[in-house]
């Protein structure tokens, strides 16, 4: 008898198809998925976004309606319903009220304002370099370095643009409240009163995620945009067509765990850290396997070992620039150019601000792990296989370094 291959669930196939730009499969599977679970709002939203980008507004409409039915304060879904009604001849005020009948007047006004003040979309030639990887992989430093190259701008972790500070953490803005009251996640350079990442700009992105990165590029006045959203699902959420190049940054499993360990409480027992190490290795694999197995953007994918970059920054930066067709300037390795980026590693950003955006790249120290943690990592065959695959792809990059 042959080996029975486990069947992949339709929803998993659908998620993989998003990363592979397999649009036929996305259209084929959405009905079976929603027939099984009509309340799968994640699938509804992402499918509606894809339909809108493809110009299939009528196909998206029932999904926007379902999202508003589930949450009368769903700003994006209500905005699309309102805009479609206006396109059919309804006046904006009436369309806003009809799109979200259970929302308040402030919410309806925000919808109408978002329609009246759309964010311009960058037309023509455009290059988006998306930095990908796990948390604390070195992405903030590389993002700001690349964002300082001539003609290049960085937005950082763009998914924070529409988020606000709440009493319990961070979440989406409440558009049923006055825009002036929203405590948006601040620009890492200008703070909360940034004249580029304005509340109206953030509202526009929250209303309509289509051409997300082109809108940001237009706002930053650049045709070469660097982002550091890192997570593959977030990238596809904001760019279903994956109109991007990708720089996948990774540390060795040992260095990655060391970075994560530094963020954990310091007063727990040994069992806590041992369990955390096992859990982290699983999360590390989950962060990187999709890039190796299912990632098919329109542009090139380049892998950069951050451990190696800290030892040889100039030649590896030149290699990255060559692969992506970016202008090379070694000066960004000592002083970068502050822009209007958001999110990122808070410690890294504080170091840059404290040094007036002077950059100091030092080799990573020895990970010096607890022997039990080292044994867990060495014995994790799946993690080690992922590490070897990425390291081989990094070697292909390093081999083009002159001399």
Following the backbone from N to C, one meets helices and strands in this order, namely HHHHHHHEHEEEHHEHEHHEHHHHH
Could you give the count of β-strands? 7
Q: Helical region count?
A: 18
CATH H level, superfamily name of the largest domain? P-loop containing nucleotide triphosphate hydrolases
Shape: globular
- End-to-end separation in angstroms reads 54 Å
Uncertain parts? none
Kindly report the average pLDDT value. Answer: 93
Describe the structure.
- This protein is an alpha/beta fold.
- It folds into 2 domains: 10-116, Alpha Horseshoe (Serine Threonine Protein Phosphatase 5, Tetratricopeptide repeat), CATH 1.25.40; 127-398, P-loop containing nucleotide triphosphate hydrolases (Rossmann fold), CATH 3.40.50.
- The chain is 51% helix and 9% strand.
- It has 18 helices and 7 strands.
- The strands form 2 sheets. Strands 2-5-1-6-7 form a 5-stranded parallel beta sheet, with helices on both faces.
- Helix 1 (10-20) runs antiparallel to helix 2 (23-36), helix 6 (92-99) packs across helix 7 (105-116) and helix 13 crosses helix 18 (381-398).
- The N and C termini lie far apart (54 Å).
Give a concise summary.
It is built from 18 helices and 7 strands. The chain is of the alpha/beta class and 403 residues long.
